[in-house]
Amino acid sequence: MHYYEIRLLDQLGYRPQLFRCLQCNSEIKPVDQYISFSQGGVLCPKCGSQAPEASPISVDTLKYLRHYQRSAYPEAARAHMSPELNYQFEHLMQHYFTYLLERNLNTPAFLRQIKQS
Questions:
Q1: CB neighbourhood size of 52 (10 A)
Q2: Would you give per-residue pLDDT tens digits along the chain (117 residues)?
Q3: Which of 48, 52, 63, 86 could be joined to 43 by an S-S link, Cβ 3.0–4.6 Å?
Q4: Cα–Cα distance measured from residue 44 to residue 35, given in angstroms and rounded to the nearest whole number
Q5: Do residues 38 and 16 lie in contact, with contact meaning Cβ atoms separated by under 8 Å?
Q6: What are the strands of the beta sheet with 55-57, ordered from one edge?
Q7: Residue in 28, 6, 30 with CA at minimum distance from that of residue 19
Q8: Kindly report the CA angle at 7 between 110 and 54, in degrees rounded to 5?
Q9: CA–CA separation, 43 vs 39, rounded Å?
Q10: Nearest-10 crossing angle of helices 83-101, 59-70
Q11: CATH 1.20.1440.120 fits 2-116, yes or no
């Protein structure tokens, strides 16, 4: 499912920048970063800490985002996230889609209800 969310963003022209800081253009290192939905991608720790709209993103979540963004489906389907990482990823994607659509989505809550049943 996450793979298709990333591909949907690509097709709609909202592909997040995940490899370079959007403000200073420095290469993103394998440490916890920040993500800015309004700017459309990742900020390095220095720039992200100064951006009030930016949210922290773990290095593991960023690795999966990058993997899904650059991989074909057969390769992406082999990736398996821990339940905690899956929750972080879902939370991040839900916030990004909510920002882009300017309204809350009903589908994520519905899917959570189905999983709990």
A1: 6
A2: 789 999 999 999 999 999 999 999 999 999 999 999 999 999 999 999 999 999 999 999 999 999 999 999 999 999 999 999 999 998 999 899 989 988 877 766 666 677 777
A3: 48
A4: 9
A5: no
A6: 41-43, 33-36, 55-57
A7: 28
A8: 75
A9: 9
A10: 70
A11: yes
Residues near 116 by beta carbon (within 8 Å), at least 6 away in sequence: none
- Joined tokens for residue 80: 């398996």
DSSP code per residue over 73-115: HHHHHT----HHHHHHHHHHHHHHHHHHHTS--SHHHHHHHHH
pTM, two decimal places: 0.83
CA–CA separation, 26 and 7 (whole Å): 25
Residue where the block lists tokens 């592909």: 15
Q: Are 51 and 71 in contact (CB under 8 A)?
A: no
Q: State how far the Cα of 1 lies from the Cα of 77, in Å rounded to an integer.
A: 9
